[in-house]
């Protein structure tokens, strides 16, 4: 469970987050969507501790937090195995539950001894997925997780996300691929200019917009957010 | 936790081609100067000129670029249960120490092979080169963290290097000429202490008899920096030149929104 209470953040003259209050229940996948500059990334970064909010509180189990960035850049002269071991070493009180299994699921065995600079963007993304999930996270934040992944790896990642959700984790995801959101998300939070225009489950959103699919509902919100808000 | 992270940053930087090139450059430059110039003093003066220009330039530019290029990695580290101060310290030491080792080995091996490693001038050159490495990496890290834009950050680092390495001496000269009717000993010493490159140059120069060739100025520097008090002031100044930008960088890192 992640809760955000009265969260605000301003960068110079731009109010990026405007008194957000949200809760993300355990055992659900919540898609955070909205147009560019709506505050999605800043909200994720506040939860991760990368950005300090001006006001508000965030309740999250930081030790159980897994994070998969959109761009997977790691120290280029370390091998994939060393990168995974490095992250494992930063959690001395926890034992990775499934590193070997994750490596096999993503087909990373033959890449483990290669330096990161020699790996393709997609393979580095797979290393990022292993790092995010290897401790069996209680909260998982995914920023455009399938960007750069091949179709097989993309499907495996979606399966894993569903499995982790079923184990009771709170999962937040941002993506511009609407079909992916439709496939994965149980709930949707729609941000517009730093404020929440919609927060609820997918069925309610479909009913509210009258759209036949989540993709169309989201597209409708992005096109005319005020109508949905009202 | 810091040492665990430092271990991996050291491995990453230590395997990089820049550190190997840096070592090779100092090795070839030192060996070349030893081969082509007659005498320890000329070799060390030649090396000093390289060290005083190249180390600050390499440290500021590489240090600044490294922080900006590691932004995604830093964000990943910040999402782990590790203190920000541990991440910053591991990054600073992990980047600066391999370059320090490359300089020391690249310079020490040829001088050892030629039997002059333990001379006071070579030792002072190694010490001041090491200090400049730590000073300018600390300055570079502070700039890279304080200035968000990479191009602006690199530009500022370059201007700072240009100021300390080239412009500062011109400013000192202009001031001493402008105020030539007044006693300038103390202001000159203060101005030297305020530039780590000038301070390093004076420390190395005073190990030679060349200080006498600098005339009155050399005598003033010899009188001050040649005493235990002057040596202490020099050492403390170089430590402060490292500590102040490091602490400023750490504070900026702790407060920064990524």
Overview features:
heterodimer; A: 230 residues; alpha/beta; Rossmann fold; six-stranded mixed beta sheet; three-stranded antiparallel beta sheet; 9 strands; 37% helix; B: 258 residues; mainly alpha; 85% helix
Total beta strand runs of chain B: 0
* Quaternary structure of the protein: heterodimer
User: Architecture of the largest domain in chain A in CATH?
Assistant: 3-Layer(aba) Sandwich
Tell me the total number of β-strands of chain A.
9
Output the structural class of chain A: alpha/beta
Fold and architecture overview:
- The complex is a heterodimer of chains A (230) and B (258).
- Chain A is of the alpha/beta class.
- Chain A folds into 2 domains: 140 residues, P-loop containing nucleotide triphosphate hydrolases (Rossmann fold, 3-Layer(aba) Sandwich); 72 residues, no CATH class.
- Helices cover 37% and strands 26% of the residues of chain A.
- The longest helix of chain A has 16 residues.
- Chain A is globular.
- The model of chain A has no long low-confidence stretch (mean pLDDT 88).
- Chain B starts with a helix and ends with a helix.
- The longest helix of chain B is centred in the first third of the chain and has 30 residues.
- In chain B, helix 2 packs parallel to helix 5 and helix 6 runs antiparallel to helix 9.
- By secondary structure, chain B is mainly α.
């Amino acid at each position: 469970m992640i809760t955000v209470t009265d969260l605000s953040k301003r960068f110079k003259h731009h109010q990026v987050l405007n008194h957000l209050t949200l809760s993300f229940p355990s055992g659900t996948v919540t898609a955070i969507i909205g147009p560019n500059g709506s505050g999605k990334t800043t909200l994720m970064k506040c939860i991760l501790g990368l950005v300090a909010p001006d006001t508000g509180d965030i309740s999250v189990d930081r030790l159980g937090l897994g994070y998969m960035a959109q761009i997977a850049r790691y120290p280029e002269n370390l091998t994939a195995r060393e990168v995974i071991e490095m992250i494992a070493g930063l959690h001395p009180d926890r034992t990775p539950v499934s590193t070997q299994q994750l490596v096999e699921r993503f087909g990373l065995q033959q890449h483990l001894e290669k330096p990161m600079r020699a790996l393709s963007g997609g393979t580095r993304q797979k290393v990022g997925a292993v790092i995010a999930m290897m401790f069996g996270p209680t909260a998982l934040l995914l920023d455009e997780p399938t960007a750069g992944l091949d179709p097989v790896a993309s499907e495996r990642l979606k399966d894993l996300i569903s499995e982790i959700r079923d184990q009771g984790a709170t999962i937040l995801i941002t993506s511009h691929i609407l079909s992916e959101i439709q496939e994965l998300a149980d709930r949707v939070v729609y941000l517009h200019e730093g404020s929440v225009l919609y927060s609820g489950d997918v069925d309610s959103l479909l009913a509210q917009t009258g759209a036949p699919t989540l993709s169309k509902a989201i597209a409708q919100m992005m096109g005319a957010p005020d109508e949905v808000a009202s | 936790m810091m040492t665990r992270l430092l271990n991996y940053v050291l491995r990453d930087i230590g395997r990089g081609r820049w550190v190997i090139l840096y070592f090779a450059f100092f090795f070839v430059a030192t060996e070349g100067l030893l081969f082509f110039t007659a005498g320890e003093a000329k070799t060390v003066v030649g090396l000093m000129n390289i060290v005083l220009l190249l180390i600050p330039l390499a440290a500021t530019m590489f240090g600044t670029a490294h922080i900006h290029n590691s932004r995604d990695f830093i964000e990943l580290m910040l999402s782990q249960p590790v203190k920000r101060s541990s991440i910053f310290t591991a990054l600073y030491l992990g980047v600066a120490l391999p370059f320090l080792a490359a300089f020391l080995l690249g310079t020490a091996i040829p001088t050892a092979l030629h039997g002059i490693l333990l001379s006071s001038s070579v030792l002072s050159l190694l010490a001041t080169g090491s200090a400049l490495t730590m000073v300018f990496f600390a300055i570079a890290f502070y700039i890279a963290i304080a200035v968000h834009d990479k191009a602006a950050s690199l530009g500022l680092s370059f201007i700072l290097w240009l100021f300390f390495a080239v412009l500062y001496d011109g400013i000192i000269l202009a001031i001493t000429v402008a105020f030539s009717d007044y006693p300038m000993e103390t202001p000159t010493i203060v101005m030297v202490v305020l530039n780590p490159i000038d301070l390093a140059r004076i420390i190395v120069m005073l190990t030679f008899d060349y200080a006498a060739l600098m005339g009155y100025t050399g005598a003033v520097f010899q009188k001050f920096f040649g005493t235990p008090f002057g040596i202490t002031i020099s050492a403390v100044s170089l430590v402060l030149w490292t500590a102040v930008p490091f602490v400023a960088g750490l504070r900026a890192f702790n407060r920064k929104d990524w």
